[in-house]
């Protein structure tokens, strides 16, 4: 059986039951924010949230996901408002960006159960590989996101997607409101 | 298509007016400006397309009726921030509101040729010794002309800002003048009396949005020479603006080549066998064809591809086909590579650098020598090589990240037999690269597969293929020899470096589509000045020689973040440290005594040691130094490292960088941090052994790449500077391994002369 929830929607995958979750998400659901980097659980680029836990989606089959709740980067927030996402932009973490979905999912899962992790706890939770060298900013961003979650700080670093041209024109004088025909 | 023309700088003989920018940055910059202007190709029209409400001003800018400004970026975004940096330069000159800036990838056009890189290449490639200046000038002119005709839009060597700052600024200046001209007509004013700010043309108290005059402005004829914005109360240049690509990189919406989804698309996996002259010999067709989900197979002389409804099914089918490959000649092995390097070191060499007279200076003196060895370095980006291809009638469309789009198109055309005009390339962001995207195999393979299966296909290499088929940064071996003066300083230095002629291989592959093994064979024995670049560029040593001993290692090699400097800096900076330790001199003062002709680097070194709290480098401390200059930038690094029960522990890196003026200090800092961690990975791993023609590593976890927990504290400082920008992408890489090796010597008394540092001593 391969029926479970992905980003709060019920899904049944008509694929081989031993298909790794990663490929069901990417190639069947077109949720391409979750990345393939190694297929052996080492890089963490495919990290998703399954029932609150950060899991490498290349290492679980869709059969093993039966009845569980899977959240991908696309489902973390509808409008980039998750504190981890906001902190990621505030600290300018991403470079090439390829590993970042997995990093963000791992950080979000860590902070859900522990909003004030120690260095050692961050080290233990963040085992993903980044080749651009964003590690130190990740540590700083997790701390910032923790403060936001604990209500000690607020940030608005990244705009939501899909801003309407009329709203943009209201905020930015250089833009011209669309003419009505 | 009103407004499509290239009216910038039609008159070759004229140079621009002295500008605010030139005033700002001084005489040398003015010289640079004139040069950039005169080499900007002028016989070509922009080939941009525009939406109905968008207006093309030139090859770099479009402005919409709604006020959005599209900045055209002719470089590959691979994390270095180029899709923010070049737009930031343009927005600054234009007087735009940063919130109105959009980014588009440039189409292939000679207008975007990276002439700087071609020039740099031509001077480092062939030794200048013995070539009269006029011959050299003619050669570089010819190379530049050739590069422009072939639209060599390379992204490499961190040259994006160095190359495109002036063209971008000139393009923005031109657009700004046109906007002012159109506004001035409405006001019946002189355009020279107008100004721009925050996306408006201003004239006294009058204001008009760019949006309102863009349509009229794009039809006007600009002055023949660029007129630059004279001042700005709040310049965008130098601001720590948030990268434009970040929002898409935190919600999974940023698209890489593997994220393209097309109707009816299928997924392909590939197996290519050992490096070398390899051909596909046989496969188990019966077992393979029964693989669940398999749709097609594509057999090529050199590889086998399987196609299925998802990538995992395709990749699994490859196992069942169990393809067998046959490789001609001696299979590559680590032993063979070591032997070839050692042998090359003993044979005749090409003298690439010669200052003073080393033979005479060393005659009858006590020579001190040491040998160093550096393993091949893998790119190992997290994104494996990936391309998406689809047919459009007889045309083929390919989505791929490439650092050389025109050459990628040419490679696809040649492999498919289509004319280049029938190949459409959609340049994508790269998930890392580090120069891996200078290889176009995956794009070619995807196009071949799509033409066979007659439907859109996405090909991704597995991680094992990515490791096994990577063309690594070359392994190298050096023998450093010095004689000392009475004070213990270096009087004469000879660096003999055995390394393959990588840049000849690279050129043959990139421009002639030569297979890697053939290019490797053809390059064997050739002089390659770029392969020993950075070996002797900073210290004032009276007699210096750098020799290239071309090594035929059988393993094809490629370009990589840091290139030759990543090993030459290791050789030099470790050897300098050895000489200092020998005389019991502080490694800092030993270096400072020889940095008389390199004041910028000396300042970096003094600042880094003062920030890091340099204790004199005595034995028993855990500190080590290294410094280096490349491509207009300078770096000094102080590393703190020790041997612990967990092995080599790097605790802190303190880097001070002078990279000239910074377009965006926040992105510059990212680049240095990233370079240091890339250098750290290369110092401790990012390599593989080779056995029987294949890499012994198959998994990412076998490469010893550092994770967050292994990341040292990092402190990066920039020296304030008005110099023209230096390159930032690579400068962090070369200093890491020598600084750590020198720190390890201070800590343990053991000299590590090999990379990776965790390996055995030479």
Automatic annotation (TrEMBL), chain A:
One of its GO terms (molecular function) is metal ion binding. Keywords: 2Fe-2S, Iron, Iron-sulfur, Metal-binding, Oxidoreductase. Residues 159-181 are annotated as: Disordered. Residues 164-181 have a biased composition (Low complexity). The keyword Amino-acid biosynthesis does not apply. Residues 1-76 form the 2Fe-2S ferredoxin-type domain. SUPFAM superfamilies: 2Fe-2S ferredoxin-like, CO dehydrogenase ISP C-domain like. Pfam families: Fer2, Fer2_2. The keyword Iron applies. PANTHER family: BLR6218 PROTEIN (PTHR44379:SF2), OXIDOREDUCTASE WITH IRON-SULFUR SUBUNIT (PTHR44379). This is Isoquinoline 1-oxidoreductase. It comes from Sphingopyxis witflariensis. The lineage of its organism: Bacteria, Pseudomonadati, Pseudomonadota, Alphaproteobacteria, Sphingomonadales.
TrEMBL record, chain B:
Residues 251-329 form the Aldehyde oxidase/xanthine dehydrogenase a/b hammerhead domain. InterPro entries: Ald_Oxase/Xan_DH_a/b, AldOxase/xan_DH_MoCoBD1, AldOxase/xan_DH_MoCoBD2, AldOxase/xan_DH_Mopterin-bd_sf, N-heterocyclic_Hydroxylase, OxRdtase_Mopterin-bd_su_IorB. The chain crosses the membrane at residues 21-40. The keyword Transmembrane applies. Pfam families: MoCoBD_1, MoCoBD_2. GO terms for molecular function: oxidoreductase activity. It comes from the Bacteria. SUPFAM superfamilies: Molybdenum cofactor-binding domain. Keywords: Membrane, Transmembrane, Transmembrane helix. This is Aldehyde oxidase. It comes from Sphingopyxis witflariensis.
């Amino acid at each position: 059986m391969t029926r479970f929830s992905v980003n709060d929607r019920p899904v049944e995958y008509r694929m081989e039951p031993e298909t790794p979750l990663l490929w069901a998400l990417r190639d069947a659901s077109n949720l391409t924010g979750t990345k393939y980097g190694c297929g052996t659980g080492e890089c963490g680029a495919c990290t998703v949230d399954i029932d609150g836990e950060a899991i490498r989606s290349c290492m679980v089959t869709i059969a093993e996901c039966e009845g569980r709740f899977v959240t991908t980067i696309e489902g973390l927030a509808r409008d980039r408002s998750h504190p981890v996402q906001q902190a990621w932009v505030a600290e300018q973490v991403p470079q090439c960006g390829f590993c970042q979905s997995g990093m963000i999912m791992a950080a979000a899962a860590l902070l859900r159960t522990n909003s004030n992790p120690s260095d050692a706890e961050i080290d233990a939770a963040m085992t993903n590989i980044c080749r651009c060298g964003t590690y130190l900013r990740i540590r700083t961003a997790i701390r910032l996101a923790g403060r936001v979650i604990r209500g000690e700080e607020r940030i608005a670093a990244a705009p939501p997607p899909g801003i309407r041209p009329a709203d943009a024109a209201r905020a930015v004088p250089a833009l011209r409101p669309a003419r009505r025909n | 298509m009103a407004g499509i023309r290239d009216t910038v700088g039609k008159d070759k003989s004229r140079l621009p007016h002295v500008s605010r920018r030139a005033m700002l940055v001084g005489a040398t910059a003015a010289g640079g400006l004139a040069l950039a202007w005169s080499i900007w190709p002028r016989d070509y029209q922009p080939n941009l397309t525009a939406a109905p409400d968008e207006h093309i001003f030139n090859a770099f800018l479009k402005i919409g009726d709604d006020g959005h400004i599209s900045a055209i970026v002719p470089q590959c975004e691979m994390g270095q921030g180029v899709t923010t940096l070049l737009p930031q330069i343009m927005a600054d000159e234009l007087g735009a509101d940063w919130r109105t800036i959009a980014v588009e990838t440039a189409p292939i056009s000679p207008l975007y040729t990276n002439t700087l890189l071609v020039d740099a290449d031509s001077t480092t490639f062939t030794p200048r010794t013995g070539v009269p200046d006029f011959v050299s000038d003619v050669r570089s002119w010819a190379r530049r002309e050739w590069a422009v005709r072939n639209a060599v839009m390379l992204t490499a060597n961190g040259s994006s800002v160095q190359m495109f700052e002036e063209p971008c600024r000139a393009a923005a200046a031109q657009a700004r003048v046109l906007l002012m001209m159109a506004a001035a007509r409405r006001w019946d004013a002189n355009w020279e009396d107008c100004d721009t700010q925050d996306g408006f043309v201003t004239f006294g108290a009058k204001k008009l949005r760019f949006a309102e005059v863009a349509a009229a402005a794009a039809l006007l004829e600009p002055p023949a020479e660029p007129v630059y914005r004279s001042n700005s109360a709040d310049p965008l240049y130098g601001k720590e603006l948030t990268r434009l690509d970040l929002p898409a990189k935190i919600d999974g919406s940023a698209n890489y080549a593997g994220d393209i989804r097309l109707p009816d698309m299928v997924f392909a996996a590939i197996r290519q066998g050992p490096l070398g002259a390899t051909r596909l010999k046989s496969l188990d067709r019966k077992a393979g064809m029964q693989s669940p989900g398999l749709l097609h197979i594509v057999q090529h002389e050199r590889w086998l591809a399987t196609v299925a409804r998802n990538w995992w099914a395709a990749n699994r089918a490859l196992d069942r086909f169990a393809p067998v490959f046959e490789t001609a000649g001696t299979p590559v092995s680590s032993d063979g590579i070591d032997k070839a390097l050692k042998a090359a070191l003993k044979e005749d060499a090409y003298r690439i650098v010669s200052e003073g007279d080393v033979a005479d200076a060393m005659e009858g003196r006590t020579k001190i020598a040491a040998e160093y060895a550096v393993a091949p370095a893998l790119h190992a980006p997290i994104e494996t090589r990936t391309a998406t291809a689809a047919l459009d009638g007889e045309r083929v469309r390919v989505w791929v990240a490439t650092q050389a789009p025109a050459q990628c198109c040419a490679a696809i055309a040649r492999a498919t037999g289509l004319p280049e005009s029938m190949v459409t390339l959609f340049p994508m962001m790269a998930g890392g690269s580090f120069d891996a995207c200078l290889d176009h195999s995956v794009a070619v393979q995807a196009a071949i597969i799509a033409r066979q299966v007659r439907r859109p296909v996405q090909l991704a290499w597995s991680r094992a293929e990515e490791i096994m088929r990577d063309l690594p940064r070359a392994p190298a071996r050096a023998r450093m020899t010095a004689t000392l003066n009475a004070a213990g300083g270096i009087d004469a230095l000879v660096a003999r470096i055995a390394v393959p002629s990588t840049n000849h291989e690279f050129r043959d592959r990139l421009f002639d589509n030569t297979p890697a093994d053939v290019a490797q064979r053809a390059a064997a024995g050739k002089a390659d000045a770029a392969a020993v670049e950075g070996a002797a560029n900073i210290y004032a040593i009276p007699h210096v020689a750098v020799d290239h001993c071309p090594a035929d290692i059988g393993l094809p090699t490629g370009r990589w973040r840091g290139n030759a400097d990543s090993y030459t800096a290791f050789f030099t900076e470790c050897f300098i440290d050895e000489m200092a330790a020998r005389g019991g001199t502080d490694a800092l003062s030993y270096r400072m005594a020889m940095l008389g002709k390199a004041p910028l680097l000396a300042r970096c070194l003094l600042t880094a040691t003062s920030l890091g709290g340099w204790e004199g480098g005595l034995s028993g401390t855990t500190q080590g130094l290294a410094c280096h200059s490349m491509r207009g930038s300078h770096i000094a690094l102080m590393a703190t490292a020790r041997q612990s029960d967990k092995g080599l522990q790097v605790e802190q890196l303190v880097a001070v960088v002078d990279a000239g003026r910074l377009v965006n200090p926040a992105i510059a800092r990212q680049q240095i941090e990233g370079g240091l961690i890339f250098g750290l990975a290369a110092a401790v791993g990012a390599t593989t052994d080779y056995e029987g023609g294949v890499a012994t590593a198959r998994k990412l976890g076998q490469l010893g790449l550092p994770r967050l927990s292994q990341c040292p504290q990092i402190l990066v400082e920039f020296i304030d500077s008005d110099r023209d920008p230096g390159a930032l992408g690579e400068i962090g890489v070369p200093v890491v391994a020598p600084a750590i090796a020198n720190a390890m010597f201070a800590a343990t008394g053991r000299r590590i002369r090999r990379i990776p540092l965790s390996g055995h001593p030479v």
